[in-house]
Write a structure and sequence with these properties.
Length: about 210
């Protein structure tokens, strides 16, 4: 991750990070972002912007809602995403991602990009924030991130007919992190299908093996 995202070792905040078999909503995962001094750094963030949720019947607090994805066609206008899109874009490292198809049971499909080695590291386009509005005082200041999505390409569409995460080319990392809103929006597009493949599929295949 340091090499791909051009992060100096002294800006790696992950500690002795170990490979993760999978990343789940509301759980921590590495993210690359631009620090206040303009350098890139690696930090852990929880996946999903958090908002308060209460029972409609009793009014009592429930588990916080986690907004895991942000539609690319709404990031510049929707109140949930707009400020983060304008000021806090990030890179989300991954080696593959899962989509499910069908029910009882669903078939899991893991997608990766093609390369010289199995499942090369890549980055999703992401947004982050450091304040979770409406949460209790002891939970407000959490680092969270969300993943930007776009139209599905020809590889993903048979499994998920409408959406897929935005995968960025390495040459576009800087434009996504610090470019103008117009430059960033131009990157919200499907990744070329010819450069992707299904690397694992089956029922209850919930972990990246």
């Amino acid at each position: 991750m340091r090499q791909l995202f051009q992060v100096d070792p002294d800006r790696d905040r992950l500690g002795n990070a170990q490979p993760l078999p999978a990343i789940w909503p509301k759980h921590e995962a590495p993210v690359a972002r631009t620090a206040d001094d303009g350098s890139r750094e690696l930090v852990n963030m929880r996946w999903g912007f958090l908002t308060r949720k209460v029972s409609k019947r009793t009014g009592k607090p429930l588990a916080h809602a986690a907004w895991n994805n942000a539609r690319g066609d709404k990031v510049a206008t929707n109140g949930m995403w707009r400020d983060a899109f304008l000021h806090r874009r990030c890179l989300i490292p991954a080696t593959s991602f899962r989509e499910g198809k069908g029910r009882n049971p669903a078939t899991d499909y893991w997608f990766a990009i093609k390369g010289d080695e199995p499942r090369p590291l890549f980055a999703f386009a992401g947004l982050w924030r450091g304040r979770q509005f409406g949460l209790p005082d002891n939970e407000v200041e959490q680092l969270t991130h969300t993943m930007v999505t776009t139209d599905a390409n020809d590889v993903v569409r048979p499994v998920h007919p409408t959406r897929m995460p935005v995968i960025l080319h390495p040459a576009d990392y800087e434009a996504w992190l610090s470019g103008s809103p117009e430059q960033a929006l131009a990157l919200v597009r499907p990744f070329p299908a010819a450069r992707m493949e299904v690397v694992l599929s089956g029922c209850a295949v919930l972990r990246d093996k």
